[in-house]
Every structure is written in structure tokens, then in C-alpha cells.
Amino acid sequence: MYVLHEPLRVQPKCRVELHVHLDGAIRPETIWEVMRKKQLNLPGDGSLDDLKRSLRVNEPRDLLHFLQPFSLFLPAFRGDLEAIERFSFEFVEDQSKESVAYCEARFCPHLLLDSQSTIDLVNNDETENTVGDQITTDGSNVAAKQILEAALRGIQKGEEKYNTKVRLILCCIRGKSEWSWDILNLCEEYRSRGVVGIDIAGNDEVAGEGLQIEEFSIFEKAKEKGIHRTIHAGEEGGWESVKQALTSLNAERIGHGYRVIENEDFYKECIEKRVHFEMCPHSSYMTGAIKGLNIPSKRHPILRLAEDGASFSINSDDPTITGTHLSEEYELLRKWGFNEALFTKANFEAAYKCFLPPEEKQELLAELRKAYGIISDNEISTNDKTDNSSRTKGSGSPSLKPAVKIASWEDRTF
Asked: Residue limits of the Adenosine deaminase domain (predicted)?
């Protein structure tokens, strides 16, 4: 006899994600609807299934190949404030479904401006944009600030409905230094209105050549202003790009960073300094980052980091392109041997290394402790007193139930 059970109505918000691109997490259904509404050319027979197949990268090559699908759908959203607000709202809903308590999503507002060109994120080339002025809702030009505000509106509405907190990190693009000062100014202006940090994305393989003097100055200025910093490094580029991010760009966290294990001495130094690595398992294969590792073993670096007690988080990067969300990332790691302890540690590391203000960070840590059922010293003490007072005189064993004491993460020194 089989008994049917209804699914859980409420699941604890127990995950923290630090590396996901807002414009790389748009639902294929939304892309399809927007492109159809604007009568843009859809791949294949124009069906949603054919669009999904065109969006997803299934063969690992390199970063350029991985980013190509963006040229298919990003033009449809350029300058369209209504559509940007919509996919930002939907992003929060999707994060809530993934049991995410807090997420830092990143994007470059300038890539969504209604310009007449599409930026190649790898080679910094510009190609003709066939969408043209159809992409705006009212036919007028919009500014980067309006793009950002549309995203923040969608996020705020999503937070109010789904009780998942989302903050933004604004991305500079390697080789596009003309945008970088504007991005820094937006980070400062909106730092108490939903923006918590700055990043730089693009091909880090030629980081030293690709970065311009202005970009070094921008991250130095960001440090002076107290703006948090995370850098894409160690993906296409070698371990040297990670070192440059930490030393020349004042990075507090590293986006990806897989190739740090190519240099043992530097890798050990990163562990000792508690450098946090934002790991993205599925995308690391699809970008060819793992294939390019210059080490004898092709084990994924996240396994090495886990074994060595390094600081890292688990992230989805670009769900639109990989077709995977956090659940699939966790399932992949579970197949590789991760257990509950490693998942729990990764989420607490992410919470501790997030860019929230101290008070909000403490609230997030408390929320995680509650979600994971971590018993505090006060609760243990209260239980002790209650059980002692209620014991029957002369009874054999105490009635106190077993409890696990977990060290407080606020007391950590890294």
C-alpha cells in the first residue's frame, strides 16, 4: 500500500550565493516572450525549446564560446526598463525557490544601455546590433542609472514578496575603462540603496595587458571609499591573475580562482590569509577553465579547497547558459563526495565573507544558525536548568536530550 504525501510547504532559507550574474540568470521563458513581443528573430523554428537549446552551452571550449549566447538575448533587453525590472523580480523568486537566504548578484548596467552595438566581453570588440531602437519601451535613450534603478525596483518587489534578500555588485568590464569611473560612482551613490560592491569581469588571461591604468586607480579609489571588491580571476588566466587581483586591485574575494592551485606556495598563502573563492562548478567546465588547468590531476579545485579547509562558496554563475541552478550545483558536489558538513561550512563561509554591513551580516548568520538548528550556549544552559529541576529524586539518568554545541562564527579571526 502506497501513501501519498504532500510536499513541504515551507523550507528553511539556508543558502548564501555570492557569484551569479543577474543578466546571466534570466528565465528562458522571459527571453522568449520578450523577443516574440519585439518580433525579433528566434533560433530554429521559433519555439521555446529551440531557444533553450540555443542558450545553453553543452560543450566545454573557452570563455568566448561560453559567452556567445549573450549576444542572442541581451540586445532584446537593452534600454527596456520594464523588462529589466521584470527579470530582476523573477530572479528573487527563483532564488527563493532555491532556499537562498541571501544573494549577491552582479551585472554591468552599461551592457544594457540601448546603444547600437554589442560588446564582446572577451575580446572587447563591438559588433552591429540588429535590434536597434526597437529595444526601448518608449523609444527614448536611457542612462546607466536608470538601468540600475529598474533592477533595484524589481529586486525590492521580489524581496517583499519572497523574503529572500538580494544585493547588487556592479561590474566593470576589462578593456572598457570609459565605463569604470561611472560604475564606481554608482557604487558609491547606491551603497545604502542595494549596491554592496564592485567587480571587474572579462577575460583575465591577459589581465596585465587588458587592464588599463584607470582601472587600477578605480579599485584603489574603491578601497579608499570603503566599497567592497571582488574580482574575476584565475578562470582563463593563470594563478598570476589571482595574485594581481589581490595585490594590485585590492580584491577581498576572488570570482572563480580555480587556477590558484597551479602554484603551491601561493595557494598555501591564500589559505593562510583566508582568501575567499567564489566557486562555480558547472560553469567552470563549460568555460574550459578546468580543462586548462596546468596540473597533473584534473580533479576539480573545489575538492582540493574542501580538503584543505579553504574559504569558498558554492555558486551558479550563469544559469541561463548552463541550465543549472544551485540545486544542480549541490547535486553535482554531492556526487563528488560533499556531505552536509561541507555544504553547511560553505554557506557560513559565504555569509561571513559577504559584503553586507556588520549588523545585517550578524542577522544573516543568526538566520543561518536558526535554519541549520544550531543550538546556542544560552539554549543549552536553559535546557540544563529545566531538566535538572524536573528530575525525579533518585532517578537513574538525566532527562536532558543530547545537544550539539557549535562555535560562534563571529568569533573567527579571518
From this structure: 15-370
